[in-house]
Amino acid sequence: MSIQIRWQFALAGFFMFSILAVGAAPIDRLALVTRHDVVLTNFDTSNPLSVGNGGFCFTVDATGLQTFPGAFEKTTPLGTLSDWGWHTFPNPNHWSIDTFHFKEFPDLNGRLVPYADAPGNKLTPEMKWLRENPHRLDLGQIGFVLKHADGSPVSPNDLTGINQKLDLWNGKIISHFEFDGEPVDVETICHPTLDAVAVRVVSPLIKQGRLALQIHFPYGTGDTKTADWSQPDAHETVLGQPDSSHAEFYRKLDDDTYFAMACWSNGATLTNVAKHQYEILPSSKMNQLELVCAFSSARTAAKLPTFAETESPAQEHWSSFWKNGGAIDLSGSKDPRWFELERRIVLSQYLMAIQDASAYPPAETGLTYNSWEGKYHMEMYFWHEAQFALWNRLPLLEKSLGWYQQILPRAEGTARKQGYAGARWPKMTNPNGAESPSPVGPFLIWEEPHPILMAELCYRAQSDPVVLRRYSEVVFQTANFMASYATWNTNKQCYVLGPVLQCAQEIFPKDKTLDPTFELTYWRWGLETAQQWRLRLGLPRDSKWDDVLQKLAPLPTADGKYLFTETTPDSYTNPKWNADHPAVLNALGFVPGPGIDPTTMSNTLDWIWTNWNWRDTWGWDYPAIAMTAARLGEPERAIDAILLDTPKNHYGLNGHVYQRPNLTIYLPANGGLLYALALMAAGWDGAPDRNAPGFPDNGQWNVRWENLHRAP
């Protein structure tokens, strides 16, 4: 591929670039995207489709709406979720993480450090309440009421002729099905700037009085089902109807409130059929029915758009999304795996855009349904959001990156409570930044450098001093904590990490674990990058940070391989350690070292590749391994890793990645895939000087790419 590269050197030697194809036709973006439109031809409970705008998401069954939610209770629940919609159960005991009794653990030198522990994962009522609240709320279910000629209800097995398409280029779900020989055609769209779903239905069943629409409001739950239909008396729905084709629903669940507004085709009528349950019944003169339903945290006087007024901006939004972001076209490749890899890339871009592009960090299941009560897992923030920077969609990253500034006072309070400087970021949290009790979460540390890495990606993409000023406080307070957290080991005359520490490979005892290879490397990279930020702003290097950098413990090794932690010399001889995340590889994966010996890391990768328990991994492990392989100059293995045929690396027809029965989608895998593929295509600092240095140069791969940024 003939390319023109524009290099932009930042201070202190960091650089980034964007790329434009010249000398060859630009990638046909429309063809690239539409060849991966999702088409379903049966009632598939494993692959529900969604529309969304990054802060609001609506997931549907084969009818294009949420008509048969019961069929999905054991797979992927059909939800209507937003970034602002949260519910809190009553709290008569006034429980709060601020008054929770933190258990004290001694650090290496015997200093007692308090943590929000849940020993043995045996949750007291207080711990359970704190973990469950607030939980993300299902705002309401919108589906069809379908009836046979005799008035009996239709079941999923009665549907025939199913043909459902996710039109990626336009952000629309187009559904066709039949029952009793009659066709139903449905279009489902999400508004790009309003938390609103619009639907258009065409069917002869409308005139026959056998098709209506239903809006049903549930109570909240932290459960994966997201909606609790068993407590109709625990919440309120107050209907206001200014005219015959508009309604406002005021919703109150304990101390939480929100609004739903609906407008529908003239001639249809709204009927309250049960508590919190409403049907929109078309007249016998209609053969088409439209509905727009919007949700908001506060009452709005704005007029709802029509279906057409929703469709037009949605088309413009998605067309712009696909035209202006990064792109990778593999269609000229001979390797038969090209189509599947390209499919994963395209569908992952769509899923991250509709699920993970809001003002807050995402949950691991995004806005589809609740995992871990819908709370954010901040160690996953990199895997969700970093890809936006490399795929030329930086504003989608910066939407949520500002949240760190919002919760900075609380993070500083956590560090202070534990006797540290700076800001200690939470692991499992919600919009207010409060930590959740856990035997694991509060002890993790690999999420701590993430704000530095994310801010650095923003700076590399823009090379603008405004970025430095915007994020400098978060970067510096993060580094202050990191330097303060490192403990001086008098015996070894160096700074160490832990104990108490839970490393990314979450199987080691937190009260005995010391110096994990990955975390040590990330600490070095993060502190040095924070120093570069000081220099870019005209400030001197921080002496404390430099002291830690110069005296941080060396990486633990044995027999030519990196140990997983300093305290597991049996890393390669005890089979119980070859499970969970092979996190040691991350030291030369999404972190570019420093201080990594390529031969030692190559030996480490070889052993893991042969011996790891792949059934006990997670979806982001595969892109992580691919990045390590690429940086080591093993592009064939990078491709093999990212497409490794294991249960945790299976991408469904809808692009989601199954992990286990109660975790049927896993967005860190999708985000990790995108970051890894951008690195493999556009390269990384110090990569070989050739096109797509992370792909095999064997004549089997033809990699065309545009508008991607080089990784650190």
What does this 3D model show about the protein?
27% of the residues lie in helices and 22% in strands. It is α+β, with helices and mostly antiparallel strands and 712 residues long. The radius of gyration is 26 Å and the shape is globular. 53% of the residues are buried.
On the 0 to 100 scale, the average pLDDT is 95
User: How many distinct beta strands?
Assistant: 32
Helix/strand-derived category reads alpha+beta
CA radius of gyration is: 26 Å
Descriptive labels:
4-stranded antiparallel beta sheet; alpha+beta; 712 residues; globular; 9-stranded antiparallel beta sheet; 16 helices
Give a concise summary.
By secondary structure, this protein is of the alpha+beta class. It is built from 16 helices and 32 strands.
What's the arrangement of secondary structure elements?
Layout (H helix, E strand, L loop, with lengths): L2 E7 L5 E7 L7 H6 L3 E3 L8 E4 L3 E5 L19 E3 L3 E2 L15 E4 L5 E4 L9 H8 L2 E2 L4 E6 L13 E8 L4 E8 L2 E9 L5 E7 L8 E6 L2 E2 L6 E2 L6 E9 L2 E8 L2 E9 L4 E6 L2 E5 L6 E9 L10 H18 L2 E3 L8 H18 L20 E2 L3 H10 L3 H8 L1 H4 L1 H10 L10 E2 L20 H13 L2 H21 L1 E3 L4 E3 L20 H20 L6 H9 L5 E2 L2 E2 L35 H14 L9 H11 L3 H8 L24 H16 L21 E3 L6
Antiparallel strand pairs: 1-2, 3-12, 4-5, 5-6, 7-10, 8-9, 11-16, 12-13, 13-14, 14-15, 15-24, 16-23, 17-18, 19-20, 20-21, 21-24, 22-23, 25-32, 26-27, 28-29, 30-31
Helix pairs in contact: 4-16, 5-6, 5-9, 5-16, 6-9, 9-10, 10-11, 10-12, 14-15, 14-16
